[in-house]
Amino acid sequence: MIKLAVIGTNWITDQFIEGALKTGLYELTAVYSRRLESAKSFAEKYGNVQLFDDLAILGGSVDVDAVYIASPNSFHAPQAIELMKAGKHVICEKPVASNYTQAQAMYRAAKENNVVLFEAFITPHLPNFSVLKNALKEIGALRKATISYCQYSSRYQKYLNGENPNTFNPEFSNGSVMDIGFYCVGTAIELFGEPESIQAKAHMLNSGVDGCGSVILGYPGFDVVIGHSKISDSYIPSEFQGEDAALMVDMISICNSVTKKIRGGDSTDISVPQDDNRMRYEAAEAARQISENKMVSQQSERSLIVAKVLTEIRRQTGVVFPADDSVSAAG
């Protein structure tokens, strides 16, 4: 049984805890927040767990094997590196870091301290993602992929009202491509590897982050066209076009369904059932790696490539984070 601590007291932490406990491989032993009162309020529903507001003390606790980090993006690298140096395994929400340099430093820290660093990117671990991956072999030569994830943020009105929510604040290494766009970029790289070329454009908000944007990733014989937005909604599926057939995926982040349409023929739903809590699958995979104390090299490499590509996308679109100049966060 893995003794789990969590950092972050929001809905995604609740969802991960629920998914992790469903696997039967974890027990929740601790909650950390910068404000102890927040940790106490969050932890009430989970019974008797330890509360922390000091990361060093958390790192020294014998009642913690692994820490799930769901703090704002800018805290991921410094918190993860400190905890890994203390000998803790880390399950870090996507994106694993603010930039490529930090991501490299994090994986170095994992190796140097003989612990697992697992990026909590839900999509590759879903049953329907495996369906998609296998079906790509059956549609002929791939010629174009369109991966779209656009969802109007519940915090956008606060931004329009003159407030400064984390979602649109560069101080927290946020914005559209680092949040919702990650699923699109991460999916492309999980399926097809590092692209040969990257072309990116974005609509910039006055806060200094992107509200929405487009990316073209070039691969031999085909392009992946990405559309991402936190200031508008989209209702179309992602699509993978082969010479013989096409595949449509509803909600690329959680792969609600996969449909196959033969050229000139019928459409078939090829989906399989998935748990209502999609985070269960990534929690189970993280537990396997932690129990074996061995990271999957392909997953680590994918995380590094995604960080590299996201950093290049931001360079092209002019999104700059304070974390980009942080030497200490890079180890």
Automatic annotation (TrEMBL):
Residues forming coiled coils: none
Domain (GFO/IDH/MocA-like oxidoreductase) ranges: 137-226
Annotated InterPro entries: Gfo/Idh/MocA-like_OxRdtase_N (IPR000683), GFO_IDH_MocA-like_dom (IPR055170), NAD(P)-bd_dom_sf (IPR036291)
Native source organism of the sequence: Vibrio paucivorans
Designated name of the protein: Gfo/Idh/MocA family oxidoreductase
Residue ranges constituting the Gfo/Idh/MocA-like oxidoreductase N-terminal domain according to the UniProt record: 2-120
Molecular function as annotated in GO: nucleotide binding
